[in-house]
UniProtKB/TrEMBL annotation:
Domain of life: Bacteria
Statement: the UniProt record of this protein carries the keyword Transcription regulation: yes
UniProt organism field: Pelagibacterium nitratireducens
Name this polypeptide is given: LacI family DNA-binding transcriptional regulator
Repressor listed as a keyword: yes
Pfam entry (one): Peripla_BP_3
Domain HTH lacI-type: residue ranges: 12-66
InterPro entries in the cross-refs: HTH_LacI, LacI/GalR-like_sensor, Lambda_DNA-bd_dom_sf, Peripla_BP_I
Keywords: DNA-binding, Repressor, Transcription, Transcription regulation
Signal peptide: none
Single annotated GO MF: DNA binding
Length: 343
């Protein structure tokens, strides 16, 4: 009819693309932004849906919405522990592949230094943060980051209680394997040397040890808390070497403590695996360099770093995505430092 205005079809939206492809809006958004986080099959399905319904990505508007520095910040608590170097390698593997640069800061287990680094990284306009919270970090730390709208992923330790994305380790499997092996070898007096640091990984590891001991009906256990340094661990081993009725086997909070005790026992003329059993935690490369080799629990820091970086890129690109919690399994790696209990 003359005079009628033509009915304009509504412009297809990203939600229309998602429905057509049978994916979430967040996944569709990753595809149109050329994110490396999407698999080839999903990418092809979304691109086919875009073509079919005539969706056009408004690159100019997207650029206005997301002016970025192409940098991320990573804050870790202890660079002297080789575990964190391996974790950083996993993060870099993803971040470098995505064409971003990384600012790395070392908090030295100081919540105050950590706050300062966050402020400076924010001033430099980082697009997001990966944080392994320093010991004693309060929940308000994460709340402040989310109030700022800062994309953030916690790694290894958490104070956010599910408020932000998190990648850690399932410590129970590796601890179960370690304790089970010691029990099989006849050990009934088993000690655990923990670090005097207040953070979630410490609590989880100690709880995993106690649970494994209870499952195997081992009642005789001693728990000792020390500074997590080679020197403190060496001193403890020397003390225990001269202590009657000391545990016949030791599980350590990490390999820094384990390697220190290995040296301390050796300095006293005792051989791990023969005179007592000794197990570390994290399975850093140095555990295979001492003799006898230090048995340890492998916690896969490269995989944790990769997952943390992938989650951060996802969070930067799709701020509205659901919070994701990932835990990487651990497993026991036996070496010469474990052996049968002596009478």
């Amino acid at each position: 009819m003359m005079g009628e205005k033509p009915v304009r079809k509504p412009r297809p939206t990203l939600m229309d693309v998602a429905r057509k492809a049978g994916v979430s809006r967040a996944t569709a958004s990753l595809v149109v932004r050329k994110s490396p986080l999407v698999g080839a099959e999903t990418r092809a399905s979304v691109e086919a849906a875009m073509a079919e319904i005539g969706y056009v990505y408004n690159l100019g508007a997207a650029g206005m919405r997301a002016a970025r520095s192409r940098t991320i910040g990573v804050i870790i608590p202890n660079l002297s522990n080789p575990f964190f170097g391996v974790l950083l390698a996993g993060i870099d593997q993803v971040v470098d592949g995505a064409g971003l640069a990384t600012f790395i800061a070392h908090s030295s287990e100081s919540a105050g230094k950590q706050d300062g680094f966050v402020t400076r990284m924010r001033e430099h306009g980082v697009d997001g943060l990966i944080v392994c919270p320093a010991a004693g970090t309060a929940p308000r730390f994460i709340e402040r980051l989310t109030d700022w709208g800062m994309p953030v992923v916690e790694a290894l330790r958490t104070v956010g209680a599910g408020v932000v994305d998190y990648v850690g380790m399932d410590q129970s499997g590796g601890m179960e394997g370690a304790v089970a092996r010691l029990v099989d070898l006849g050990h009934s007096r088993i000690g655990f040397v923990t670090a005097n640091l207040n953070h979630s990984a410490h609590d989880e590891r100690l709880a995993a040890f106690r649970a494994a001991m209870a499952r195997h009906g081992v009642a005789s256990a001693i728990e000792i808390e020390i500074d997590p340094t080679h020197g403190e661990a060496m001193a403890l081993a020397r003390q225990m070497a001269g202590t009657q009725d000391a545990p016949t086997a030791w599980v350590c909070h990490n390999d820094v403590i384990g390697l220190g005790m290995h040296r301390g026992f050796s300095d006293c003329g005792l051989v791990p695996g023969r005179d007592m059993s000794l197990i570390g935690f994290d399975n850093v490369a140095e555990t295979d360099l001492v003799r006898p080799g230090l048995a340890s629990v492998a916690t896969e820091p490269v995989e944790i770093g990769v997952l943390a970086a992938q989650l951060l890129l996802r969070r930067i690109e799709t701020p509205e995505a659901e919070v994701e919690i990932r835990r990487v399994p651990s497993h026991f790696v036996e070496r010469g430092s474990v052996g049968a209990a002596r009478g």
